[in-house]
Amino acid sequence: MRFSINPEMATQEVQPNETLTNLKAESDTLKTKLEDERAKLHDVELHQVAEKVDGLGQFIMKTRRTLKGHGNKVLCMDWCKDKRRIVSSSQDGKVIVWDAFTTNKEHAVTMPCTWVMACAYAPSGCAVACGGLDNKCSVYPLSLDKNENLAAKKKSVAMHTNYLSACSFTNSDMQILTSSGDGTCALWDVESGQLLQSFHGHAADVLCLDLAPSETGNTFVSGGCDKKANVWDMRSGQCIQSFETHESDINSVRYYPSGDAFASGSDDATCRLYDLRADREVAIYSKESIIFGASSVDFSLSGRLLFGGYNDYTINVWDVLKGTRVSILFGHENRVSTLRLSPDGTAFCSGSWDHTLRVRDRGYHLEPVTSATVCLILVSSSSCLSLMPVPSPFYFIRTASFITFGP
Amino acid sequence: MQDPDMGVKMRNQRLLITVIPHAMTGNDVIEWLIQKYNITEEEARHLGGLLVQYGYIYPLRDPRSLLLRSDDSPYRFQTPYFWTSSRWPASELDYAIYLAKKNIRKQGELVDYEKENYSILHKRINHTWDFVVMQAREQLRASKQRRKADRIVLECQEQAYWLINKPCPGAFDVLDLGPERCNVLSSRVALIEHSRRALGRNRVKSSICLESFMKYSEQYLHHDPIMSGCLPSNPWISDDTSHWTINTDMVGTPTRLRVERWSFSFMELLNDSMGRREFMIYLEKEFSAENLCFWVACEDLRHGESSKIILKVEEVYKNFLAPGAARWVNIDSKTMERTLEGIKRPHRFIMDDAQMHIYFLMKKDSYPRYLKSELYKNMLAKAIVPQETKKSVFPFMRRQRHSSPSPAMVTQATEDDGKAKGAGPTGTSSTTNSQI
């Protein structure tokens, strides 16, 4: 594994009497000082401020669509701006574009590499970008001509020296931001394949990135195996803020809808919220019974809910303000590798190593039983009715009556 | 990789004295998890099941089926020696010794895939095969000297370990972890630089920052479909795409929620192409439309093709910045000077300062006045509030799920017509000619 040269290291003049121990001592002192400075302005905790807000109670989430078609682990997915189409990529090199609403597959491309860990939909909806173990990010324009081989029009845009972990278009189809196992992020011009800016500062593989929704639209955050989440200025390539409180690899980062904060999910089984103006971590979302890493996170539209996909095959839904968990979702049969909210917030999609993608949203108290559901009704000790689809012919309701949920 | 935090804490359990000591029932495990972590039975079963799959607990009856049964099936804790977190990845040599032992102990005990693995290993590490066989014999001899109970326990533990580390082909491989990640040493000098910079930055008090999250969540509560539902219905639930059709860019009358959202922030107004259009109409009345046009042109420059940068910078200069320009924008002299200087060596960010200046000008001045204007108020008044769709009483009559034209297709059509590229039906494209 090659370690890319840090330009700062190269140009910095090291005094002859500065030994490694001196440097270590200095950097540790500065770090402590920084923590103290940050702590000075930390006058209240998030859950304290959130006391005056109503609690959410338990949420029921239901799977509305299951997308089957990948023959192997689904690694990444992204929504189209039209709110219903999805692109997903998998371990065997397949990239599929679906109309998630009808569950029809619209396009399929086979990449020449395996482990396609990154894929993104272009803002115009006319192209998709993907990459993985080939160390590249390629853009495929989507053609509706059934006879046309999509792979023929493929354009290689990004080149890294290690695997591609994440990619995202910026505000247009013309630029792509990538992150890689070589420890760097980079901004590319799609048309020419030219490198516009590179971002050095992570000390290990960079695993994820997200673009800021801010007014000035110039920053993005990345997370890596060095347990750090860095905020970058796209223009200058500078790292403007850095957060290091996770205890293990950061698998996913996502901005809070207002752009003032971001959440991260890590192998240390926690998700955390970092406020950019306060310049510190402000919340940890964890539970003793959650011992597997979080692989992907996203917020609901209002930022009140944080969805986390975990390596124990579940999705935990957190109340961002109170710090409590409002729901745990089962259904996937292997780890959840990717999770994104749809552009208008009506649903969220999760992709898993069990080869499927599921689109889910809220279930309500009164919902008709569809003919596709064969149900087992359980009356638990707290006299609350729960509904579980089970392939068992024991008890099933097949009438047009409404089933009420509990309190 | 295998995160050390995943280690299971030692716990108190009920001891069932059977032939095999220190066993517990599946039910016990689940009960304990529910108690200790205050979780539901479903979650406890799931978590317990994972512990079995990863080899921290193994079943005594039917060891090849790695499931946690919530009845009185007996289970045991795996010894830490064989924990996945301490002995991973499994060594080939160890596996060879294990298979050799099985083979020696009872001919024909090896299962098909084990036989295959055995012969593959035999070929691959043939040079140390004598060692393997010798070790296997030694271990078998040592185990014969143990008490029967202990011997059975050790055999079970070992078998459980190998069932997980070398699973039957086609079975669920729980240790499939994905491509390797590396961890490289950090650069101290860069860290010091960074910490120094960070110490100098301005920070805001937590109480102020956190208050803003409260406010934001509250403000957007009714706009969040997962929190509050959406009208007329959530397309994913009802299979009815009305919600999407009444919120397209080109719709005649917008919904009330949409128009309300324009008042939340200037960015919300600009991000919605209809909002932007309305704002433009307002600015035209105020004779300050050039500001928005300039902003749009700058966005186009920033996010457009690299090859067109020089051309676009010239256009922007000609239309907005040159003395006597048709749509001259009023920026302060210092910014103007800096920008004009920079135009001599054009790049995509050259207009940033000027663009920022105009953006904040609009935000502080025109935007608040727009929200108070008759134009906006009328828009809000005639905005529709869709009726909530009554949930169908006859569930079998599921709606047809209609497909929609792909954004790619629409663009192709416009391309064929020779119109501007990139003006998809849902794109918030900033091409100057199509919107204004």
Helix-strand layout with pairing:
The complex is a heterodimer of chains A (407) and B (436).
Chain A: H1 7-11, H2 20-40, H3 46-49, E1 61-68, E2 74-79, E3 85-90, E4 94-99, E5 104-110, E6 118-121, E7 127-131, E8 136-141, E9 155-159, E10 164-169, E11 175-180, E12 184-189, E13 195-200, E14 206-211, E15 219-224, E16 229-233, E17 239-243, E18 250-255, E19 261-266, E20 271-275, E21 280-285, E22 294-299, E23 305-310, E24 315-319, E25 325-329, E26 336-341, E27 348-352, E28 356-362, E29 366-368, E30 375-379, E31 385-389, E32 402-404
Antiparallel strand pairs in A: 1-28, 2-3, 3-4, 4-5, 6-7, 7-8, 8-9, 10-11, 11-12, 12-13, 14-15, 15-16, 16-17, 18-19, 19-20, 20-21, 22-23, 23-24, 24-25, 26-27, 27-28, 29-32, 30-31
Chain B: E1 24-25, H1 26-37, H2 41-53, E2 57-59, E3 74-77, H3 92-105, H4 112-124, H5 129-144, H6 148-165, H7 188-199, H8 206-220, H9 225-228, H10 235-238, H11 242-245, H12 256-261, H13 266-271, H14 273-286, H15 289-303, H16 309-321, H17 333-343, H18 352-372, H19 374-382, H20 407-416, H21 432-435
Antiparallel strand pairs in B: 1-3, 2-3
Helix pairs in contact in B: 1-2, 3-4, 3-5, 14-15, 15-16, 15-18
